[in-house]
Amino acid sequence: MKDSIQIDGVYSRSVRPLLQAGEPGYVHSVFQNGWNIRMGEGLIFIGSTKNGQLPFGIHLEDRQVPELISLIKKDETVRYDIGKSSLLFSSFCIKLDHQEAYHSSIGAKTDRPESLLRLLDAFAAELLIYSQPTGVGISVEHFIECFMKESHVSCSDSERRVMHLMDAALTRNLSQIDEILRYWIGRGEGLTPSGDDMLAGMLAVDAVTGMFTDTFRLHLSELVEKEALTTDISREYLKYALKRDFSSVVTGVLNALLQKDTDNLNERTKELLRVGHSSGLDTAFGILIGMLIIRRNSNWHKKL
């Protein structure tokens, strides 16, 4: 070991079982702001908090990341020393402080899903101000018009398939669920395809409302766990989302919605929209879809 790095940041409690399983891992992928290691059946991200605290993250100080990236090699073996609470790489080690663990789970479920709609207009307005299409080319403004069934609007194929996804989330019809999930999982470019980010956003709304059917959740889980329909990294995000664990930029938006805090919501939404090329917008669009499912299936909008 040439260097010994003491972590000053924090890490997710969810990574501890992966580290303590006793099996060596390896460097899976390397990025500008960090890298992933595979330990057993899971991925662990190590790096900055540029995209928030991740549900499978070990976060270092930003200034440490470039130097460490220059020292690692893809596919190199990684070991965890339980006695020293240290991750051992070929040229450095990272010591973990168990006092500095965070939990990325979203807040408690609300028994009034309609309460999220109080800030629906404010949330949608932030997405409209952002004024960019999603990663699969959907205009948020046009989709809202399509959803509202404006007479002058002709819905695109992608918009219709979002509507089908909204229907599937509330049904127990397995063939209907399977068809639309297979369409959206892995759809789009990048490390986390747009369809997956959208599903993660929808799951964040479901995490605090419990409105999706068990059939929908279970089949999504089966497709993510058992079939190679998308990237390894995207599968990891979806696996955690299905357990109600999300990145801090997502939980920030949902908590602001639950607290009915407009100013905080605006700030947290802007923070989410800054993530990735279109990943933040795709996730925010998924949250919007979840809220529109509530709106379509309640009488709350009559009181707005």
Task: List descriptors.
single chain; 8-stranded mixed beta sheet; 13% strand; 12 helices; two-stranded parallel ribbon; 304 residues; alpha/beta; 10 strands; 2 domains
Describe the structure.
The protein has about 300 residues and is an alpha/beta fold. It has 2 domains: about 90 residues, no CATH class; about 190 residues, no CATH class. The strands form 2 sheets. The chain has an 8-stranded mixed beta sheet with strand order 1-9-8-7-3-4-5-6, with helices on both faces. Strands 2-10 form a two-stranded parallel ribbon. Helix 3 runs parallel beside helix 11, helix 10 runs antiparallel to helix 11 and helix 11 crosses helix 12. It is globular.
Largest sheet at a glance?
Answer: 8 strands, mixed
User: What fraction strand?
Assistant: 5-15%
Order of helices and strands: EEHEEEEHEEEEHHHHHHHHHH
Number of strands: 10
Domains, number: 2
Fraction of residues in helix = 40-55%
**C-alpha termini separation:** 62 Å
Q: What shape does the CA trace take?
A: globular
Strand order of the largest sheet: 1-9-8-7-3-4-5-6
Number of helices: 12
Rg: 20 Å
What is the SS-derived class? alpha/beta
Average per-residue pLDDT, rounded, comes to 92
As residue ranges, the low-confidence spans are 300-304
